[in-house]
Structure formats: C-alpha cells, structure tokens
Amino acid sequence: xxxxxxxxxxxxxxxxxxxxxxxxxxxxxxxxxxxxxxxxxxxxxxxxxxxxxxxxxxxxxxxxxxxxxxxxxxxxxxxxxxxxxxxxxxxxxxxxxxxxxxxxxxxxxxxxxxxxxxxxxxxxxxxxxxxxxxxxxxxxxxxxxxxxxxxxxxxxxxxxxxxxxxxxxxxxxxxxxxxxxxxxxxxxxxxxxxxxxxxxxxxx
Length: 204
Hints:
- This protein is of the alpha+beta class.
- The chain has a domain at 59-187: Adenovirus Type 2 Hexon, domain 4.
- It is built from three helices and eight strands; from the N terminus they run ββββββααβαβ.
- The chain has helices at 116-126, 129-138, 167-170; strands spanning 5-13, 19-27, 59-64, 76-82, 97-104, 109-115, 156-162, 181-187.
- The strands form three sheets. It has a four-stranded antiparallel sheet.
C-alpha cells in the first residue's frame, strides 16, 4: 500500500556547522495545517492639503510602511470632508480623482494604476445588488449611480470607496517583499466651476 507523501522544509546542520533549509519527503498525514484569521490594517494619510480639490491637476502622496501587512485582500479609501460653503451637490466618489497610482521603493518602482472610470464600472459589474445597497450611499451615489443628496453648509461627512476589481484585490501580491510604497491621488480634471471652497473641482 502506497502512503501519500508531500514535500516539507527542514533545517539541517552541514559539515561546516552551518544550518541550511532543504526539502524532504514526509507522509501526507503529518502535514501541518495553517489557519489564518482576517485582520484589518488602517493607515491614516497625514498632511493632506486643504486645497487638494481646489487646484487643477493637484496630487497627494501617502506612504505605507514596509512590513505593515503580508497579503492584501481588499482596499477601501475613507475620506472625510467638511463643506464650508453653501449647499452643494458633490460628484460621485470615484470621480473625485482622475487616477490612483501605487509605487514602491519610495516611488521609483511602479506597481499599478487605477482610473476613475474603472473604479465606477467595477462597482456595478462586480458587486451584487445586496452589496450595492450599502456601498453606493457611502460612495455618494444613489441606486442609479448618480450623485447623492446635496451636502449642507457646515456639514461634515465621511465617504468610503472600495477599490474592487483592480490589481490590489485580485493579484493577491505578497507585500512583505515590497519596500515602503506610495499611493498617489491625482485630483480629477475640472468638471464645473462652482462656489465651494473645499471641493470646487469635484462637484457635478
């Protein structure tokens, strides 16, 4: 009767007294099972300029330290704003930005780019109707993907934008080998001129 076997990594001592890792064959019933629990990592990007959405083509870069996590399953942007002007209707959250760029090695290595149209399309194409009921309102969109209710004067509100369908949540990259990486948020092109001090360029 043949016994199922598998390869395992074992540490052995060499003749020179050093320790090396080699592959050895062991019975399959001796294989170790690893159970992983979900964890959530939050990175606060400090120093975001207040005029980020006032200037055409503005850019902000946030740094995530190397070794903060091992594998990334999903990413969600959390954005809190305050309307210091009059009542204003904001654009849908994906169109607040032109694109999101991810780089490692202090910005010298390009990892990937996610564009605003791709973010909006993936929300409708990859999420179920039940998921959209909670995702769309938090991304400033109604059930038809149109901008939600106006933001009142003096109102502070927090929005959430899940980055689904991009390389971040589909490639399952091993992030421990990636040095500190930078996420650059490029402000969307000017859409309509409005009277809003804090967000004049992402208003529909």
